[in-house]
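Appendix C reproduces, verbatim, an entry submitted by the partner laboratory led by Prof. M.T., so that reviewers can inspect both the input and the predicted structure.
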Amino acid sequence: MPRLENGGWSCSCAARGRHRAQPGDTAAGLAAKVGGMLSSSGASPSLTLVGTGARSPSTATSTSSTLNWSQHLVQRSVVLFVVGAFMALVLNLLQIQRNVTLFPDEVISTLFSSAWWVPPCCGTAAAVVGLLYPCIDSHLGEPHKFKREWASVMRCIAVFVGINHASAKLDFANNVQLSLTLAALSLGLWWTFDRSRSGLGLGITIAFVATLITQFLVYNGVYQYTSPDFLYIRSWLPCIFFSGGVTVGNIGRQLAMGIPEKPHND
């Protein structure tokens, strides 16, 4: 009997120990689950932060590229405008002194002996043409690499000024001979400093459009040419516009070298 009682007592004590151990195990399991949930919830924000950090550098780079491209565009436009306005003043003054171009008396008495609208109009046209040349080259996928140096650009400007000077200084038997001579010189300028199909096409287009605008201005009495032989203007004037377009285009191409390309939004 004492053995049975001892055995029963030991069994009951073991059972009680097992019943007491179960709540402890349950509490440990709950604590483990809560810890896992906290760790997973703590990891997710870190993943989110990592993802956000991975996107931010690319966005910052794109914004910086856009700002740089815009700054270069404005700088090129200002330089081309100033060059076009200055060349218009100098070359127009030469034409006026040789009595090739006639303005009203009140215009001639001004500081630059030219109409006030000539420099800003020519400067704006130079900015548009100078930006258009490299844009067309990029669109056609044919970057212009022929004589890409400032020394060549300066020689091109000198030849253009010489062609304009010849139109006012040289005396021929008639305007047709002068026009043919200037046409040959203008094509020689294009062949020497450009030699691109886009440059030739843009030069011809610029000469055509500028000639139409000049015909319209002279027709409305804004100014006039002496001895007109091509409707209201001189027949050699399209040659001046052609060579001027090629010259300004070379300046614009040289300014566009080494600048960042416009960023594209994917």
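Residues 1-25, 41-55 have pLDDT under 50 and may be disordered. Additional entries are available on request from the coordinating office.
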